[in-house]
Amino acid sequence: MAGGPLEGIRIIDLTSVVVGPLATQVLADHGADVIKVESPAGDLGRAIGGGGRTSGMSPKFLHLNRNKRSIVLDLKQAAGYAALMRLVKNADVLVWNNRPPSMARMKLSYEEVRAANPKIIYCGMFGFGQDGRYRDKPAYDSIIQGAAGVAALYHRAAGEPRYLPMVMADRMVGLIAAQMILIALIHRARTGKGQAIEIPMFENMAVQVLSEHMYLRTFEPPLGGTGDPRLLDPDGRPLPTRDGYVCVAANTNDQAFAFFDAIGRSELKTDRRFNSVNARFKNVREYYRIRTEALKQKTTAEWLRIFDRCDVPAMPYHTLDSLMEDPHLKDVGLFRVVEHPTEGGVINMALPNRLTGGARPDFRPAPKIGQHSVEILREAGYEEAAIAAMVASGATLDGRIEKQR
Amino acid sequence: MAGGPLEGIRIIDLTSVVVGPLATQVLADHGADVIKVESPAGDLGRAIGGGGRTSGMSPKFLHLNRNKRSIVLDLKQAAGYAALMRLVKNADVLVWNNRPPSMARMKLSYEEVRAANPKIIYCGMFGFGQDGRYRDKPAYDSIIQGAAGVAALYHRAAGEPRYLPMVMADRMVGLIAAQMILIALIHRARTGKGQAIEIPMFENMAVQVLSEHMYLRTFEPPLGGTGDPRLLDPDGRPLPTRDGYVCVAANTNDQAFAFFDAIGRSELKTDRRFNSVNARFKNVREYYRIRTEALKQKTTAEWLRIFDRCDVPAMPYHTLDSLMEDPHLKDVGLFRVVEHPTEGGVINMALPNRLTGGARPDFRPAPKIGQHSVEILREAGYEEAAIAAMVASGATLDGRIEKQR
Q1: Which side of chain B, N or C, has fewer Cβ within a 10 Å radius?
Q2: Structural domains in chain A plus CATH codes
Q3: DSSP A245-297
């Protein structure tokens, strides 16, 4: 047993790439026993996301699959499907992130899974809600960002549509899926009942974007147009200094007035365009332009020292590389080099959140494909001969790192 | 009682603006009784985020505070503080999103709150982990994006650092906070014990960005640099067509080969630069350039029809306004005009996820400041005279919409 608040909860994880693996990572990191079921080809995330030291162990895969165990099952073979259903019988949750019709084709619809385990929580992530015309469309993070208005935000702020160059739709929806599974676990503890959960990416991202940017079209009839002008201002960005960039945000009166003092423009504190939250919101274009002009005058280090002294929220602008050298992140021990049994030294990131009730105490590095096939089949009651037959037919794959026993 | 999977769970919510209100929104939407405690000045989110039909009811506030009740308590007054502690005694969770020292100043440290209610789950969101040198710094979404490498992604892809113009750090961390609270609720149901949870924004966002973009620096010694080149490619964006833009993502072989056929470049299917996932990853610059060139030739509608027929993942590029007219979102009923008791017609977005176990059946529009002060104080056992005295001293504010009773 792993320990941690979710100890003993068993997740059968059919997901791949990012959205599903992120959801199950959260559960695994807090003690759930996540059994990653892979086809013989393996999670596409093993390859996509760049090369690693050995094949099928991309850096992204390493970051998203720690604390999980991998079993290979060829679900097209009867023996593979039977083994999955045996695992399902003793599981709390089944998670998947492909299209609903392909779950039906694999005989893994909710009805079929529930027949094997009536208390199961059956959670699917896919592109589009099943009551709408896009229901059968395939989805990836980027096209969801484009369809749900994320790319449009850059268009307004910077002049051309562009995705955020990280799979934020996958990530947000993965976080939401973990949430929904936890809610269903609480529901089951209270009522004894399992349930099915449907998590469409497009709708979830549309809600995240529009709850922020529906803006004056929220009202019916509308009071104005879409788009929060403060966030969409072209100068709402890390601002150039004499030698780099700095990030600054002075939102309350105290902060804004301290900022005006710091840039030597104390007279703006009583300027009616800038003397209240509402006034600065209305005149954000001009407020931000004044900021931009002023910050060119000194170096980043000078500004950070000044803003720190007067409690104006400000931070260094980090590149990916400087972020990895950030002294605060060193203080908190975010980066730890762990020895992976097959990949050598690998930087693992610690859990960022602290629970005084205790976290999962052990740590399992991301598994090789099929690394735990034999172990998991044994736990499920399979005899050695049956396991050997499955390996021989390709219904499973024995990916143990050390086979001497 | 609200119904829904979290029915009967009581949350005392001291949060403001976005990060905390989003976390408690998730809990409220699924049935928790969220008591929003506001200072007499009210949640800053009531004003920031634009004007509305009445003062203090900004569109963003409406989207983030439905299904909650509002009580005003002036915690600087003894009577206000005493009332909060009375609420805490009967609560399951206390949530806050200011800096830890200011919680201590208000006599609301974990030790003090736990003394009143040993089983409480005490969850704080703030900028920076308390073991690092940034511990006392103030934080807002934008500067966290800049510090945690989000702005740097845009820098690499498009040539200048820029925040995503939505508060994605607030949103991700808010989703994570809801998750941690749910995990702690499960832990408490199993052990009977409460706990404190600390959620630092900077560390959480660094983990989200770097688990994607630490890339070849994941290995020690490093196998190469940071940054997933596929995501950071300048042409990884909605692509111009003859009359607009289209979003397309052909990742698997089937999809990429269908795409090559669709653009009349079938010979690329056997081109060694593009004939496998790995090959396309290595030659992403060229692959994406070919895509960009090809898509200029036809209109968006033509491409969408073609890609739909051959199952290449593709979506329209939506502006914020066209997103609100999307026919699929109409099919699923995402947008519903509800009559707010003081704000008139307001577009509410339905919950995007379906739980067959049932959702919260009722719907409460976002509250006016102090709308439920009297109701909540009565529930806590306050006599009418005591409530009247608190109203008179300003320790609370009676914001009932209809005071005739």
Answers
A1: C
A2: 10-208+352-393 (3.40.50.10540), 239-316 (3.30.1540.10)
A3: EEEE---SHHHHHHHHHHTT-GGGGG-TTTSSHHHHHHTHHHHHHHHHHHHTT
